[in-house]
Amino acid sequence: MTKINFDKLTKICETYGAEFTKNAPLAPFTSFRIGGPADVLVRVNGREIVGEIAAFCAENALPCRVIGNGSNLLVSDVGVRGVVLVFGAVFSAIGVTGEVVHAEAGASLGDFCTVARDNSLGGAEFAYGIPGSVGGAVYMNAGAFGGEIAGILQAVEYLNEDCEIEILHRENADFSYRKSPFMQTKNIIISAEFKLTKGDKSQITAKMDDFLARRGGKQPLEFPSAGSTFKRPEGDYASRLIDVCGLKGFAVGGAAVSEKHAGFVINKGGATCDDVLRLIDAVRERVFRETGIALEREVELFS
């Protein structure tokens, strides 16, 4: 475990009524159900403590990482050093002003879409059923069914590397397919605003229900996974390429290519991070050898 001033950390958490856990297993906080422990896990209950913990980590040269719903993460078997902040139910407020929806980073996309629907606001239907948080969705520019977060995003509130709050407006931000300006930085997304459009509630509901049914019919939701394992290659689909290479069901240890949807690597039971990474490498090598297309991993490695 990294050397940590637990007296100072305890005072910070007590001040804000938050909790932290030493040597906390991270597998339960991810949809893959894989991964070793974090040195320290803090359950965030407000923006103030985010700034305090980030400053504490900066002052003590400690890594500071964030988990939302953990739906696109593959956590290392040896765990994560430093402090991991968990954004969840107690950091998930959602509000509506006119056609703008404001959501804290820990809010689930499902709740965000439901609030939008209940206020007869359309444009976010594509995100219904994506098992992520608002912060995670902005971070990776999540998308489905032809839509993406960047298309409805208006502004992002974040904590910069100097532990100061800043606002990034969409028109000044470089988003692209599964990429955002927050990747490869130490910035922490606090909240986001989305510009939607007034619509018919029944039509919005029907579209959401359709997207959810299509997910359930095609995706292996009965197994732990991190969603689509690979990014979509230009002009094709990772799942099709993997399928034509005969890799459905291919397994390494407890990890396997789903037989229901070849774009998903699933945890059949007892899979390790090493199993998943070796499987990903084997799939990429086979697909490249047989098709000449290099698949890019979409799942975020958390180590």
Question: Can you give me a brief rundown of this structure?
Answer:
By secondary structure, the chain is an alpha+beta fold. It has 7 helices and 19 strands.
Describe this structure in words.
The chain has 303 residues and is of the alpha+beta class. Helix content is 28%, strand content 27%. It contains seven helices and 19 strands. The protein has helices at residues 6-16, 47-59, 109-118, 134-140, 201-218, 238-244, 273-291; strands at 19-25, 37-44, 64-67, 73-75, 80-87, 94-97, 100-104, 121-122, 143-144, 147-148, 153-159, 165-169, 188-195, 197-198, 225-228, 251-252, 255-257, 264-267, 300-302. The strands form six sheets. It has a five-stranded antiparallel sheet with strand order 6-7-13-11-12. β16 (251-252) and β17 form a beta hairpin. The radius of gyration is 20 Å and the shape is globular. The two termini are 14 Å apart.
What's the helix and strand layout?
Elements: H1 6-16, E1 19-25, E2 37-44, H2 47-59, E3 64-67, E4 73-75, E5 80-87, E6 94-97, E7 100-104, H3 109-118, E8 121-122, H4 134-140, E9 143-144, E10 147-148, E11 153-159, E12 165-169, E13 188-195, E14 197-198, H5 201-218, E15 225-228, H6 238-244, E16 251-252, E17 255-257, E18 264-267, H7 273-291, E19 300-302
Parallel strand pairs: 2-5, 3-5, 4-19
Antiparallel strand pairs: 1-2, 6-7, 7-13, 8-14, 9-10, 11-12, 11-13, 15-18, 16-17, 17-18
